[in-house]
Each structure stands twice: as C-alpha cells, then as structure tokens.
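Exercise (ungraded).
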Amino acid sequence: MKTLTIAKPDDWHIHLRDGNALPRTVNDVAGWAQRAIVMPNLVPPVLNAAAAMAYRQRILAARQPQHQHFEPLMILYLSDKTTIEDVTEAATSPHIHGIKLYPAGATTNSEAGVNDLTYLYPVFEAMEKHNLPLLIHGEVTDSDIDIFDREKIFIDRFLSKLVTDFPGLRVVFEHITTTDAVEFVAEARDGVAATVTAHHLLYNRNDLLVGGVRPHYFCLPILKRNSHQESLRKAVISGNPRFFLGTDSAPHAKAAKESACGCAGCYTAHAAIELYAEVFEAEGALPLLEGFASHFGADFYDLPRNTETITLVKESRTVSDTFTMGDETLIPLRAGELLNWRIRQ
Ligand code: DOR
Ligand code: ZN
C-alpha cells in the first residue's frame, strides 16, 4: 500500500458561507486542514474587524468535537468605503490576516467590491505600512472583455502597477488560472504569491463544455484551455514557494448551480487534499506536495508551520452523489466518482 505522510495542510482560500451552511463547510475542511483563510464575500460582506470577529465565533461554534483544532483565519472585504482606521484595526487583531479585493461585479457577492483602484491608494499605503496582505481576485469586469481574457488584462492594466507602486505590500494573486499569471508571479518582486485550486489543476474548459455544459465545473475565474492548465500544474510542482494551496471551495445549492443562470463555484472542501495528491502523483511529484500544501502558505503569512501530520493512503473511495448543507442539497466535485487517495483516520 502506498502512503504519504505530510505536515497537516492549511487552506489559504476558502468560502465557508454562514448560518446553517457552516456545519457542512467547516467540518469538511477541518477534516484535512488545520487552518483556513476564510473569504469575506457574505451578504452583507465582512467589512470591518467587529464583523470578522462575530463571523469567527460562528465558525468556531460550528466545529464538531473532533474538529476543535480547526482555526479560521479572518479576512476583511475591501470596498470603496474602506478606511485607514479599518486597516489599522484589522492589523492589530491577531485573528485578521488580510484584506480581499474583489473588482465590483467580478464574482459571487462582489457587488460591494472596488470600482476604482486608484481611489484606494491611501488604504494600500496603510496596508503596506502595517504589513497586512492584500488578497486579489484578479479579473477585470468590463463587459467588452472576453471572459477568458479577464485575468491577463487585469495583470496588464492593474496588478503590475499596483505591485510596483507599493513595493512593500504583500500580495496574494488568488486562484490563478493562466500561463500569464504563473509567469507574472514567478517573475514578480518578493512578497508576491499565488494560490492555486485543485479544480484548475484537474480540469480545463473542455471538461466544462464538451458534450454538454457541466455546471458543477463552472467557477470564476473560468476554467481555461489546457495549455494554461499545464502551466499551473508545472508551477505547483516547481517547488517555488510563491505557489501554495488555496481551494476556493465555494458551495452553492444544487438548484442554484443546475439552473438557466447557474452560480459560479466548485465545492472541493470534502476531498481537497486527495484531489491535489492526484495531481502531484500524476506529475510524478508527490514529495513536493508537502511544501505546496503545508509549508509555503504559512511562511508567506508569517504563521508557524503545523507540527501535526496527516497520512494519505492510495486507496480508492467513491464520493457521495449529494451532500446536505443546511436545508439544501449540495453537489460536491467528483460526486459519484472515484478518488484515488484517502486520509488515514
Ligand atoms: O467560483 C467562484 N465562486 N469564484 C469566486 O471568486 C467566488 C466563489 C463564490 O463565492 O461562490
Ligand atoms: Zn474565492
């Protein structure tokens, strides 16, 4: 039997939602991760430290007895109204680890996001001064820009300038999907990193569209062509510490996904480390999984590396067809299909 023991992973980008979704989402990620960066795109969004602290308590309360180790790392939502005081307050909290920039209209619950980056320069300056990371959903939202080009054009129009204008600002380019983003991050100054999801490593736009539209593969940024997928796979097995694990696991009810206008998001929290292990194994790079999943993110966020371990066993299991999330049905990624790895309990 093939096994792999690694330091306990963390998830540096996840959507846990709120209310009666939390028992599902929190306990799924806590099954394999010690900590997770919790995205703030709730309705209403998590705009300040007080809201983040209240949300954190709701997450902690949702942990089952066997998952009391799990630690949510809170993030604020950047809006046109974010103030320097919001930054200062966040920077002094031990529980807040960054601020997330969503261009207005880019994705789920981003209506309150940012309309004009230049307007927020005093906020970025304060973040740089307080060493508070900026997490970026890097896509332009102009209606004349093709959805497959949104990430590259965001780099060219905004990201290059931002990292130059604030040379000390730590930046995470979230859920990157293109060769352009891989190259940008690899060549950027120190303090620039990226998260990579399991679904962008495993799938490309053919999986989404050939033979019929598969709504459970629809996410944002959208899956790209296979050459971009190949670049992502090479980036995560390169051993470069700028690339680390962030699932972007994002639950939407079955009815909201399987709809004439379906929501964006893939749910991977139930099996994320197993999915990443599949990629690293297929690339002949299993020894590099630990750095990507368990070391590089902690190093970037100036947090201690986890000392506990998990053991993955090469043994197949079938994912349930459906999960429940509160009163709703949730379709996980790989529903009814096989996984090649499982976690030894
Ligand atoms: O696919 C996505 N779903 N991408 C995002 O950026 C947001 C997320 C969500 O919150 O549903
Ligand atoms: Zn996300």
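Further reading is listed at the end of the chapter. For now, observe: Residues 3-343 form a domain with the TIM Barrel fold (CATH 3.20.20.140). The pocket of DOR (ligand 1) is lined by residues 15, 41, 107-108, 137, 219-220, 248, 250, 264-265 (CB under 6 Å).
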